Amino acid sequence: MTPPTVDVHAHVLLPEVDALVADLPGLAGARALDARRNGPAALAVSGPMVRERLPALTDTAVRLAAMDAQGVDVQLVSPSPSHYHYWADEGTAEKVCRLANEATAAHCSAAPGRLRGLGIVPLQHPDLAVRALDHALAQGLSGVEISSHAPGRELSDPAYAPFWARAEETGAIVFLHPFGCTLDERLDQWYLSNTVGQPTENAVALSHLIFSGVLDRHPGLRLIAAHGGGYLPTHIGRSDHAWSARSDAGAGCAHPPSSYLKRLYFDSLVHAPHVLRELVRAAGADRVLLGSDFPFDMGAEDPVAALRAARLSAADFDAVRGGNASTLLNLALV
Known about the structure:
CATH topology: TIM Barrel
Oligomer: single chain
Shape: globular
Distance between the termini: 6 Å
Largest sheet: 6 strands, parallel
Pfam families: Amidohydro_2
Protein name: Amidohydrolase
Number of domains: 1
InterPro entries: ACMSD, Amidohydro-rel, Metal_Hydrolase
Keywords: Lyase
Strand content: 5-15%
Domain Amidohydrolase-related: 6-331
């Protein structure tokens, strides 16, 4: 039986969430930080780019037509990371997450056989994260999307232990997708905020989860790292060396860091065939999933062609194209 083609990295823009926070004072500061991190040249390009893609980000019919053109059967749809709003206070954060969860579920409900959804949780308020995850699952969503950190907190923070435990217990998917890089103005030209910032943030966040022992304590966690996990999978040898050579590096996790790649999932969005081949070698063909970043300009317009260019074996190609995600999402084979 042939698995459907499944894209696990696709986004939806939620005007309801934008309207909710539009008049709140914290939004101006968050936008100023985003502008400082990206720089004026990037903002001048990004604004028109998003406006041009607004129909694909909001209209289910436009999304399905684009999926047909790509040969994608199923998308796992997550909110645009711009909806995290980790600056928000507890009351606002809970409203943002509930509204985002409900709006994403409504968007996907227009084509339940082809669209699965993810919600969001307020990482800035760890004590609210379990409740937000449960709310997302109650809407019929498959899990939640999180960033690489929250202000003042890394993903290794013990305060997140109840969230990781609940995600493991429920089998919820956790999609790790950074938004913003703390290198700030060092990356404010030439779109380095994205091209360097995103893979850096992925690598830092995954390293926190590995070295702190979170993955030892929660071996059943189903976490997908966007952008192929950033720099970490292809440079994991340095982490292994530190783990074996230094007592401080090896104190928190039980096994060499590279072994944890086989406990994680990674999307295929790495933009180069040889990098994708190395990701498959490092993590295993059963741990890589098709991802496009639909419909943004840093995504793959033809994700299946990008996968084909890696020249994997037929079995590995089908696993990445949709077999692995079908198992993860409990999709029926055709």
